[in-house]
Amino acid sequence: MTTSATHADVTVPALEVEDLRVTFAYPRPAVAGISLRVDRGQILALVGESGSGKTMTARAAIGLLPETATATGSVKVDGVEVLNRSEKELNAVRGTRVAMIFQEPQTALNPVQTVGWQLRQALRTHRRMSRRDAHQQAVELLRLVEILDPGQYPHQLSGGQKQRVVIALALANDPVLLLADEPTTALDVSVQREILDLLLRLRDRIDAGILLITHNLGVVADIADRVVVVQLGEVVERGDVFDIFARPTQPYTEQLLAAVPTLPSPQDDPTVDIDPDSADPESADPESADGEAVTSPAVVQVDNITVRHPGRFGSAPRTALAGVSLTVHPAEVVGVVGESGSGKTTLGRTIGGLITPASGRITLGGKDIARLPRAELRTVRRTIAFVPQDPTASLDPRFTVAESIREPLEIHRLGGRDQRNTRVAELLDAVQLPRSFANRLPHELSGGQRQRVALARALSVEPMLLIADEPTSALDVSVQARVLELFAQLQRDLGFAALFISHDLAVVEQVADRVAVLRDGTLVENGDARTVLSAPRADYTRALLAAVPYPDPVRQRAGR
Fold first, then answer.
1. Could you tell me where the DSSP H helices lie in 155-240?
2. Does residue 7 register a pLDDT over 60?
3. What is the pLDDT of residue 251?
């Protein structure tokens, strides 16, 4: 691994795309004449909604367009034309001139080989070198991305560590161009900040160009030099990152910027580092938000629950939740935030009856669910519904929209056929989908439309409590804004209580009445949402807030 460019002519752009057009069998082209340029040492952000042509443009640059695609125009990487080239010609470019950092690192790593072995293979694929030299360079690459043990397997690494390994793999053969396709979407805010810092350091160290594909405009404001905005396969605006954010010239760009959720300015110093000992037990008092106890009866009361997951291969059990207490009142939305592994999802699944706590008590509507007879427990569980992170995985691909929404009614034997069909129509109206969508299959819907169907399905049984686990994390910014607006409207109209789990604090601020902050299975802060997010008591909460990128490059970079 060298720390400077190995390709001679630094005046040649890392990437030059001219009039790229990508078409499939359907009438509208996926990419309709996109042109852009990425210079060495520059980060160009390609932004737009799902279906705008961002990923297709990147795939063209690495020769990974689908076989059914027809591409015209020109795509040059380090001066070498890559469009419509043979696999042999493309293999000479991949890895050595261009490499890709994928959105989901787990899918890019071999689960049965160590990370050091995978790096050695990447090095020896494109270079003639001994196993010893490959091992030494693999260790150097891993150190560059701050991974110290080449003998670890992917399952032993956190999400952020896996992404660091993927970045090391991308750097293995000194590419002049890095294609980063949503590299931080699957990561929580603090790990995201670490990965963005790493990309900036590597950009400066190896002088590579980076094409950053993202729907997160906070990330764009944080690290991009220039921005290209695309809509329906066409470039609608381009320019310097400061100009785009301060003076957008196109309505579409203005709409994207307006859709970004933002946090209130913290009153405390936002530059504090995350300290393992920073939890403030007193700030976790659920009644500390405004100094007065909430007296309305609880929908859910969680009292001092502890959850332990069994260890792997005979290792000791791992404590996922440790003495957590939480109350959700009628018509209240409680946001649950924290890093990956903090216990957010475990808390939701435990309240929902999918995990049995080792100790503690959970009451739903005043009933201790651990003491209920099986028949009564079934009735009580009907009052809890889930909205998943990925609606594609939760909707049966063989079921129509109507069948998916109707299924919970059939499982719980609610109403007759006509009543169920009427309920489906009412729910489609409620989630603002045309009734004609009733006969569509999930693959015929967009991501936002599938999430609306998942929401309608969850509401079909009129639950007392809705548990939404990262319900908008897979959506682009404008679709996310519409789904959040719909969620808030339905919650006001129907009056259900909700547990809203998210790693995106700005999203939580949009919908939550109260916020509970978890760290390593412990509740470190709990109170009124605006108070917690603008004047947090716990250092850990302040550190989480400081890691959230703000969609303004001037403000964001001033805090670096």
1. 159-171, 189-206, 217-223
2. no
3. 96
